[in-house]
Amino acid sequence: MVSEKENAHFSELEKLVESIKQRQQVVIFPPGIASFIAVNILLIASFITFFAPVMTIIGDDWEMSQKAGGQFLVILLAVICIVPPAILITRGKKNLQRWFILLSSALAFMAALMVVVGLTMNNEAIAYQSPPLYVCIITSSLAAFLAQTSHYKTLTLFYYLLHKHE
Amino acid sequence: MAAIPQAIHQNQKINLLEQIDRKKLFARINKIPKLQSSRIVFYDGNKLIELRPHPPMCMANKLTVVIKPKEKQEKIVGQNLEVNRQDNSSFYSELASTGLSCGAAVLSWIAVGGSSAAIPVSGGTSAAITILAWGAATASSAQCANSAYRLYNETDYGNSEMNAWLDSQAWYNSTTTVLDIVSVAGGVAAAGATVKMALNLSKSTGKSFKEVLKQLTRHERKRLTEELIRAQNPGISNKALKMFVNAGKYPKRYSNLEISSSVRLQLKDAMGAAFSFAGSASSGIIRSPNRIPEMGIAIIEEFETW
């Protein structure tokens, strides 16, 4: 349900986008762009600080080549989960904002769960990897917060209107 | 009386033992796969103090790591290169590399996110440049993730041997080179657009970036706008240009804010290219720190004979 106030803002934004399309105006929206980029970079950091300790724990007795494979898989997963959705947002797919909220929340939850498991089950390997997991909780929570801000939402809406009739 | 200085010396050694951060020490030793299940003992010159016992399991060869404080004028031979490689300077070089890679990623995302919302002063970005910008954003994000993983490997929680092993692998170097090329190609495209913009600006105004960022006169802005319309519509006649302007398809003149915003965006793209170059140049640099060891470490292998 969209309120009247939001509707008024929507029509204002629509007018603005129309004038940009006609090359009569330029808009660079620093708060929106800043949160958009921050979410991407924070999610990369979250991915690494979550999956790298996981790989260290589960791959303790792996050979170097297997560990390298694991490392590449994590990097590939991070790129696949972050880059195409972010590009699609700039192409007007506004619903992908939810994907970023979901992804960052899921990472924060899984990292927190691992820390709790490590502490309560007295698992030394997990407990030792707690500091990177704390970093993951902080970065992914921050990413989840930024992906829900009005700046981020306005930016996704802006891109949506910009590419609406393409 | 000679017993008193000897007792002081002994106390110093015990103090040294207390100063050792055992968790950190064990983590460093564990980074060497062969020593992961080794016993660790501290030898103060008189007696052995066990810091970590052997794990309670059967092993073919039991290893013991002996740590001994270095005496004055005592020479230590046979340094372990694998341990030396885990120097703090590797951490800082990886940190700098991560900063550069992620800085390039930030700037390439600014290019992807911001360019669609700005007037292309360069005369309109082509589909090829847009795809290159996406490629650069993808490659620099992958490099950022890779650098972050390498940085993790250099911490006490990761395995710094992994970085050395990866650097020795041809496939790894090829992959990072490809990422570098894509990232740099995006940077070159951005730089190309910047050069094109510079030419447009100098053709119509005869002023530098800095001057353009400050202020352009109404007449200069009108000329620049006309140049841009011509760049976007090659061969357009003066009459058709005026018709486009009168019909409202193009503005009569861009405002100072619009022009300076576009110039700033182009400059950021050029900075992104510079970051990509710097990131590529900094990787693979070999550093060899010369730290003087204050402890002697010996590894003893136990074996049984019948």
Descriptive notes:
The complex is a heterodimer of chains A (166) and B (306). Chain A is mainly alpha-helical and 166 residues long. Chain A is built from 7 helices and no strands. Chain A has helices at residues 4-21, 30-58, 64-90, 96-120, 124-128, 130-147, 150-162. In chain A, helix 2 (30-58) runs antiparallel to helix 6 (130-147) and helix 4 (96-120) runs antiparallel to helix 6. The two termini of chain A are 26 Å apart. The mean pLDDT of chain A is 84. In chain B, helix 4 runs antiparallel to helix 5 and helix 5 crosses helix 7 (170-204). With 306 residues, chain B is of the alpha+beta class. A 4-stranded mixed sheet of chain B has the order 2-1-3-4. The longest helix of chain B is centred in the middle third of the chain and has 35 residues, at 170-204. At the A-B interface, helix 2, helix 3 and helix 7 of A face helix 4, helix 5, helix 6 and helix 11 of B.
Order of helices and strands of chain A: HHHHHHH
The total count of helices of chain B amounts to: 11
How many β-strand stretches of chain B? 4
Overall radius of gyration of chain B = 31 Å
Architecture blueprint of SSEs:
The complex is a heterodimer of chains A (166) and B (306).
Chain A: H1 4-21, H2 30-58, H3 64-90, H4 96-120, H5 124-128, H6 130-147, H7 150-162
Chain B: H1 3-19, H2 22-30, E1 39-43, E2 48-52, E3 62-69, H3 81-84, H4 88-115, H5 127-154, H6 160-167, H7 170-204, H8 209-214, H9 218-232, H10 238-246, H11 256-282, E4 295-302
Parallel strand pairs in B: 1-3
Antiparallel strand pairs in B: 1-2, 3-4
Helix pairs in contact in B: 4-5, 4-11, 5-6, 5-7, 7-9, 7-11
